[in-house]
């Protein structure tokens, strides 16, 4: 199967006076699984549609497999696309839906049969080839839509929120199937979603977008552990990262002070020289530790609510100055509202952000 890289160079896209993408640059390696992640309206679907050739660009270039396709027709770009809606022909069987594009393109019948058989086997559709869309579940219909793209043997596969119309269980099942598919094919895949779980589980790299700008482009591990700014930190992670306003102590940057609470920063790696300017401390709920009250780094907090989550519980607390935050804890721990906990915030798990710019310190 052909595999192609994708280069986006100084791309600008707008509608009327509205700028959607402005001077965007992005390189996707051949065989890479890249996820475009961000909230609605951030420009991720616009970027995907531009790669597909479904919308015009104002300036910049799009290269696929080393070829400038900025103004090429969609059919000439060597791409295949899976849409949010299944977009299946209702009167055609699964077999016809998957093979129709190849027939229109004049692909030999024996080649169509071979590709159809391979895709059907990979996606567990062999027993469903003679059914029509109304006879299929939502998950089966989306697998047909993916199969229709696979038989194209494209250089790049584009996915525009393909799982958003499915329930939680089906989304989880199809995530696994798409991941296996990529591992088996080694194809270049660009996948749009606003679902951070999809992004973290599927991607080789994630491009987190806001306001038409790529805020961070990195591996899922680095996006999660070392977000470059407060937006990325708040958007990625469930439950969301805790944020505590305060300032870095003047005594060499070894502590963060929030009201009467003091958090050790010994071991925190700063990006530049620490200052005593207002800052925001971030920590994920699963990184907050319950410790002994005589721990020199302990911070007291009062439990406000216990939210059972099955395997563990989400504990909602407040610091002495009234700052609210949450932590994950053992589901069997006998905690209730009003209890006082001694908590430790391991420095190696912390993130610090400038109060004004939101950039990581």
TrEMBL record:
It is a peripheral membrane protein. The keyword Transport applies. Keywords: ATP-binding, Nucleotide-binding, Transport. One of its GO terms (cellular component) is ATP-binding cassette (ABC) transporter complex, substrate-binding subunit-containing. CDD domains: ABC_MalK_N. InterPro entries: AAA+_ATPase, ABC_transporter-like_ATP-bd, ABC_transporter-like_CS, ABC_transpr_MalK-like, ABC_transpr_MalK/UgpC-like, Mo/tungstate-bd_C_term_dom, NA-bd_OB-fold, P-loop_NTPase. One of its GO terms (biological process) is carbohydrate transport. It comes from the Bacteria. The keyword Transport applies. Gene3D superfamilies: 2.40.50.100, Nucleic acid-binding proteins (2.40.50.140), P-loop containing nucleotide triphosphate hydrolases (3.40.50.300). It is found in: Cell inner membrane. Residues 1-236 form the ABC transporter domain. One of its GO terms (molecular function) is ABC-type transporter activity. Belongs to the ABC transporter superfamily. Involved in beta-(1-->2)glucan export. Transmembrane domains (TMD) form a pore in the inner membrane and the ATP-binding domain (NBD) is responsible for energy generation. PANTHER family: ABC TRANSPORTER ATP-BINDING PROTEIN, MALTODEXTRIN IMPORT ATP-BINDING PROTEIN MSMX. This is ATP-binding cassette domain-containing protein. It comes from Bradyrhizobium hipponense.
């Amino acid at each position: 199967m052909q595999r192609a890289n994708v280069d986006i160079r100084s791309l600008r896209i707008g509608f009327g006076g509205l700028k959607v993408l402005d001077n965007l640059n992005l390189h996707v390696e051949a065989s890479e699984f890249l996820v475009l992640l961000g909230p609605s309206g951030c420009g991720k679907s616009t970027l995907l549609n531009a790669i597909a050739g479904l919308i015009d660009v104002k300036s910049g270039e799009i290269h696929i497999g080393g070829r400038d396709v900025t103004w090429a027709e969609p059919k000439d770009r060597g791409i295949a696309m899976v849409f949010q809606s299944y977009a299946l022909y209702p009167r055609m069987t699964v077999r016809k839906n998957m093979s129709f594009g190849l027939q229109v393109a004049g692909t030999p019948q024996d080649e169509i049969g071979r590709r159809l058989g391979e895709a059907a086997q990979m996606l567990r559709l062999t027993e469903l080839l003679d059914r029509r869309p109304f006879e299929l579940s939502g998950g089966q219909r989306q697998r047909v839509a993916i199969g229709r793209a696979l038989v194209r043997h494209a250089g790049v596969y584009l996915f525009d929120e393909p799982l958003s119309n499915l329930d939680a269980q089906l989304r989880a099942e199809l995530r696994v199937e798409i991941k296996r598919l990529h591992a088996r094919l080694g194809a270049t895949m660009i996948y749009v979603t606003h679902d951070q779980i999809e992004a973290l589980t599927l991607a080789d790299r994630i491009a987190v977008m806001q306001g038409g700008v790529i805020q961070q482009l990195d591996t899922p591990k680095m996006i999660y552990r070392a977000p470059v700014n407060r937006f990325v930190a708040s958007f990625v992670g469930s439950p969301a990262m805790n944020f505590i306003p305060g300032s870095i102590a003047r005594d060499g940057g070894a502590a963060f002070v929030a009201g009467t609470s003091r958090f050790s920063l010994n071991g925190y790696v700063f990006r530049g020289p620490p200052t005593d300017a207002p800052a925001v401390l971030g920590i994920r709920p699963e990184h907050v530790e319950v410790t002994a009250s005589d721990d020199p780094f302990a911070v007291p907090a009062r439990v406000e609510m216990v939210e059972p989550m099955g395997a563990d519980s989400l504990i909602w607390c407040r610091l002495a100055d009234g700052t609210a935050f949450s932590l994950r804890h053992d589901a069997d721990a006998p905690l209730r509202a009003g209890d006082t906990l001694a908590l430790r915030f391991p420095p190696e798990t912390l993130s610090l952000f400038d109060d004004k710019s939101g950039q990581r310190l």
